[in-house]
Design goal:
Strand order of the largest sheet of chain A: 1-3-2
Order of helices and strands of chain A: HHHHHHHHHHHHEHHEEHHH
Largest interface: A-C, 61 and 63 residues
Structural class of chain A: mainly alpha
Largest sheet of chain C: 2 strands, antiparallel
Strand content of chain A: under 5%
Number of domains of chain A: 2
Radius of gyration of chain A: 33 Å
Oligomer: heterotrimer
Strand order of the largest sheet of chain C: 1-2
CATH topology of the largest domain in chain C: ABC transporter involved in vitamin B12 uptake, BtuC
Chains: A mainly alpha, B alpha/beta, C mainly alpha
Largest sheet of chain A: 3 strands, antiparallel
Shape of chain A: elongated
CATH architecture of the largest domain in chain A: Orthogonal Bundle
């Protein structure tokens, strides 16, 4: 593990981590402006700039290559703006055109360079795939200065940039030059893309912009926190990726970084509190359980009500027939209700406990009050309201139900002539 | 043109809040507004109505300098919009922003103060308190911390309204403030607009629902690319003008308006 | 031209036309970047096929890549359907992840073997003629030509067979669903075709040229026509023409054939963007200027119509009212005078009877415009 202590490795680690953080921050703005793929186009568009810089200077001076890349990237971005504003071509096509044509031009220049007599062009390939391992101390210093400058600009103009991303027209009305801010943001994006290329390369650049930002979005509803989290995710992915590729043989750096950030994203989408897909599924499952339980109680209640007898056991097959629910699911619902003390079971027969009956009466009351409301207030025909009430009864709260009752003048029967259970549960089983 | 309106106090003859002169606007090669001349009176509730594609939103946007006219100009209290920014509050169409944006209701309202803050300065606690007070005026102070997607349509509209209030303007321009909101919000918004008017503010709203025009507004501008008519509701909101504004396509709409004018509506409350 | 050169041009033309046919629907459906995503995301499929079969045989690679192409579409769809991430971000997240898997597989297990990334990205179209398809010892000509020709044929069949369905689901998915054409099914038909196209063209021309041919020729055609059938024909022609022109350029400059083809397609796009008779930048700017002028002239006519005809209205007065420069007002009046719509009276101007007619005509024009607008014309 001596490589961990080597200054070269620390340089690489530091440089990559910093780049990860900066691209995470700028990526948030790209994501929120729905320009996620602009980074992809810009990264590809940088290639001809690099080649031209190399042809002009005749050397592989990093700074001149960066300037060339940046200029070409900016041309690409402006071309996208021109095409989208000035023609019927939509943004996605404009991006694809810039991406492929600029890159094609770059390849043409690259093959020309390879045929130049004295050119040592071997390093230009690195540009395509990124070679974090070859970062030099000088590079890292340049990147740090540029990266910090980008962060400072964003911090200073945070309020204005937020306005640009959220409500451009409103910003213009307040007197902020939105077009100028848009160009500034694009320039920052180009700068970050250009310095980021050296770690992850052209194809993967878009991921180091968007993936941390998309992951960060899942954890918070505040832009400021999203920016911080995205920077953190970007930095972690880069650091872990660099360490992994250093410790495992033949593991390329760029792809490792992307795999780590993609894993972070996956976890975020699945499990972030509130927004997580898993939690949503869990909530949906709980609701489904509740709805089934409430329906079962209500069905037993209605059966008993019709017979005027709440004391005898009801055969499960009858309840089963009422909704055509699969048997196994019904058994599970029944068992849950038994555990909650709302149902009694005798073989294949059911009976409401006193508490279960109160609970069922509450549901029936909601259902029938809602039916009355629909018929009286919205003037729907009585034979059309049952289905709607089936859905609403599970969504209404007790307060709303009582408000509804008061509004309707406490009716005693529903539109089908069935009694509406009163607010307080019956204490005596007489009827 | 009115000169020296800067120093005018609330004299009996209030000069127009907004003057629109010979305004012609085109999007690309598609004309949207055609030689529109209209004066919007100050301290009134004013509606802009007309069929789809009549240029209602365009007129609002031209007033706000958001679209560049081919010919003509707009003045707000006697000066171009650029000099009157701080006098104008704006409520855009609800569909114009991304409601999934990571921001809270309070944050959006605070944006109304950005103009006053100027460059680089960040909103401080007292700005947030001011924004909260505006949310309170529209009755949703309790939702200040909510992400904006988690608000209902009516609540979202109220957030926009609160943001315009935070601008502390003299003229409020609103693009369909009642589109897709619930009855309670519509009522609350209308009450608020009335209060604003009583405080001497001017409200100009693009409006879709012909039925409520006579009840809600005092001044009406009928557009159909060209100005059809503008003036007090009683004299301008007539069948003839509506016919003209809505062209051959109106039928049901005008009949509704006719019926309405013949027998004023029962209050739904 | 030598036989080798003919083969290269033919392969390029097949790729150009084949990609452009199917790419037209990507452009129309505003999912052009999905083509880019697929062309990168198939890499792990190719790598796995290579590792499993141990050879560069075409069929396993096509299958492997096809699977990952469709997987990309499925993943992007699944991710954006969670509504936690919007669609373009989903694309930007999914394809680099898959591409990374591919790069890692190749560099860990296939490094040094004859599957290198450069070839995937840039292809080897220049060697097309050397790669001969042999069936049972008999030579059937260049393999890349068979493959890309086959793809062109497949795409042609897909487009011809599903023309109506693709058209409807691209322009009005709701109507399509209502009359029983599933937009989802057509989406996957299209995406499968894209995957197959990408994979098949890949080996011969590389990912970048595939992306260029999927997007650039259809976008060029979209600037030239409004009819879908015409757009398909023009796309295919542009694609083929880019290949021919690209080859000429590469022969002239002695550079990458694929790169030159992409560049030429880009040049064709720029020409269309600037010069398209209807949607070009020049035509649009001209139409805008003309409209502005027409409207100003109408303003002058209207104003003169409402002013006193006896004394006329001075140009300076018009200029002041509309805030024009005096010269501009003079120019407008001069134009109107040439059309005999206005005439001088003393120091001022007044309408002629032609002028009055013109106002009436313009009034009808405006109403017609308004009707078209309200009628929901596209």
């Amino acid at each position: 593990m001596e490589w961990l202590a080597s200054p070269t490795f620390r340089t690489v680690l530091l440089g990559a981590t910093l780049l990860g953080a900066v691209s995470g921050v700028i990526g948030c703005f790209a994501l929120l402006r729905r320009q996620s793929l602009l980074g992809d186009a810009l990264a590809h568009a940088a290639l001809p700039g690099v080649c031209v810089a190399f042809i002009v200077t005749g050397a592989k001076h990093p700074l001149s290559l960066l300037v060339g890349a940046g200029a070409a990237g900016l041309c690409g971005a402006l071309f996208v703006m021109l095409v989208v504003r000035g023609s019927r071509i939509k943004e996605d096509s404009a991006l694809g055109i810039v991406l492929s044509v600029f890159f094609g031009l770059g390849v043409v220049l690259l093959t020309r360079i390879q045929k130049m007599p004295a050119g040592n062009q071997s390093g230009l390939d690195q540009f395509l795939f990124g070679q974090a391992a070859t970062l030099l101390e000088g590079d890292v210093i340049v990147f740090s200065v540029v990266g910090v400058a980008v962060l400072v600009v964003i911090a200073l103009l945070y309020k204005e940039l937020k306005l640009l991303c959220f409500d451009r027209a409103f910003g213009a009305i307040l007197g902020f030059p939105m077009r100028g801010l848009e160009v500034l943001l694009t320039v920052l994006l180009v700068v970050v893309v250009v310095i980021g290329l050296s770690t992850v390369g052209v194809v993967l650049m878009v991921a180091s912009l968007i993936t941390p930002a998309a992951a960060a979005r899942q954890w918070t509803d505040r832009l400021s926190r999203m920016l911080l989290l995205s920077a953190l995710f970007g930095a972690i992915s880069a650091a872990v990726g660099v360490v992994a590729s250093a410790s495992v043989s033949k593991l390329p750096t760029g792809p490792s970084i992307v795999i780590v950030s993609s894993a972070l994203l996956l976890v975020s989408v699945l499990a972030a509190p509130r927004r997580g897909v898993l939690w949503a599924a869990l909530r949906a499952r709980r609701t489904a359980h509740r709805v089934r339980a409430e329906n079962l109680l209500k069905d037993v209640y209605r059966w008993c009500e019709r017979r005027g007898d709440f004391e005898t056991f009801v055969p499960l097959t009858i309840v089963m027939g009422m909704r055509g629910e699969p048997g196994r699911r019904l058994y599970r619902t029944r068992d849950r209700l038994v555990r909650r003390g709302l149902l009694l079971v005798d073989g294949d027969q059911l009976k409401l406990t006193r508490q279960g009956r109160r609970e069922a009466a509450r549901m029936v009351r909601r259902h029938r009050l809602w039916e009355v409301y629909l018929v009286r207030r919205l003037e729907l025909p009585a034979d059309h309201v049952h289905r709607d009430a089936e859905a609403m009864e599970h969504a209404l709260t007790d307060e709303l139900v009582e408000e509804l009752g008061a509004l309707l003048g406490h009716p005693e029967v529903d539109p089908h002539g069935q009694p509406i259970p009163p607010r307080e549960p019956l204490t005596e089983p007489t009827k | 043109m009115v000169d020296g309106s800067d120093s005018q106090s609330q004299s009996p003859s209030v000069p127009p809040a907004i003057e629109v002169h010979d305004l012609t606007v085109a999007y690309g090669t598609q004309p949207a507004l055609w030689d529109v001349d209209v004066d919007v009176p100050a301290e009134k509730l004013c509606a802009i109505i007309g069929p789809n594609g009549a240029g209602k939103s365009t007129l609002i946007k031209a007033m706000l300098g958001l679209v560049k006219p081919l010919t003509g100009w707009v003045q707000i209290f006697g000066a171009p919009f650029a000099k009157r920014r701080s006098w104008v509050g704006y409520v855009p169409q609800r569909s114009s922003v991304d409601w999934d944006f990571p921001t809270t209701a309070l944050d959006v309202v605070t944006m109304g103060l950005y103009g006053r803050l100027g460059w680089l300065r960040r909103p401080r606690r007292r700005h947030r308190e001011e924004a909260l007070a505006c949310l309170d005026k529209v009755g949703i102070a309790d939702l200040a911390g909510r992400q904006i997607r988690q608000l209902s349509g009516g609540q979202q509209q109220r957030v926009f309204l609160a943001r315009a209030l935070a601008q502390d303007a003299r003229i409020y321009l609103m693009d369909e403030p009642f589109a897709g909101v619930d009855a309670a919000t519509e009522r609350a918004v209308m009450e608020l607009l009335g209060t604003l008017r009583d405080q001497g503010k001017t409200v100009v709203a693009v409006h879709h629902d012909l039925q409520t025009v006579p009840r809600y507004f005092e001044h009406v501008t009928l557009l159909n690319m060209r100005l059809v008519a503008a003036g007090p509701v009683e004299t301008t909101f007539t069948e003839k003008n509506l016919q003209q504004a809505y062209g051959g396509r109106l039928t049901a709409l005008t009949r509704a308006a006719d019926a309405l004018l013949a027998n004023p509506p029962l209050d739904r409350e | 031209m030598t036989y080798e050169q003919w083969v290269i041009v033919a392969v390029g033309a097949c790729v150009g036309a084949g990609c452009a046919l199917i790419g037209a629907f990507l452009v129309l459906r505003k999912i052009a970047m999905l083509g880019d995503a697929i062309s990168h995301a198939v890499l792990p499929g190719i790598a796995i096929a290579f590792l499993l079969s141990g050879s560069r045989a075409t069929l396993p690679m096509v299958i492997g890549a096809g699977i990952f192409g469709v997987l990309t579409v499925v993943l992007v769809g699944a991710l954006s359907r969670t509504r936690r991430i919007n669609e373009d971000a989903s694309i930007g997240v999914v394809f680099p992840a898959l591409f990374s898997v591919g790069v890692i597989l190749i560099s860990k297990y296939a490094a040094g073997v004859d599957l290198d990334l450069d070839c995937v990205l840039f292809g080897e179209i220049a060697y097309s003629a050397l790669d001969t398809l042999r069936v049972g010892g008999a030579s059937l000509g260049p393999r890349p030509l068979w493959i890309t020709g086959g793809i062109l044929l497949v795409n042609l069949v897909v487009v011809l067979v599903f023309f109506k369905e693709l058209k409807l689901t691209s322009f009005d998915p709701e109507l399509a669903a209502a009359i029983g054409i599933s937009p989802v099914v057509m989406h996957y038909v299209l995406m499968s075709a894209v995957s197959v196209t990408v994979v098949g063209s890949f080996e011969s021309v590389g990912a970048i040229l595939v992306v260029a041919m999927l997007i650039v020729p259809p976008a060029t055609a979209y600037l030239l026509t409004n009819s879908l059938a015409m757009m398909l024909v023009l796309s295919a022609l542009c694609g083929a023409a880019s290949a021919v022109g690209g080859y000429a350029v590469s022969a002239w400059l002695d550079c990458s054939v694929a790169g030159a083809m992409a560049t030429v397609s880009g040049l064709m796009f720029v020409v269309a963007l600037v010069l398209s008779p209807r949607y070009g930048l020049v035509a649009q700017a001209w139409a805008r200027a003309l409209l502005g002028r027409r409207m100003r002239e109408q303003l002058v006519l209207l104003h003169l119509g409402s002013a006193s005809a006896q004394h006329g209205t001075a140009a300076a007065e018009l200029a002041q009212r509309f805030r024009w420069r005096a010269a501009q007002a003079e120019r407008l009046l001069g134009g109107l005078e040439r059309r005999k719509q206005v005439e001088r009276v003393g120091d001022g101007w007044r309408l002629t009877s032609y002028g009055t007619e013109a106002i009436e005509r313009a009034g009808k024009d405006v109403l017609r415009h308004a009707d078209e607008d309200g009628g929901g014309a596209a």
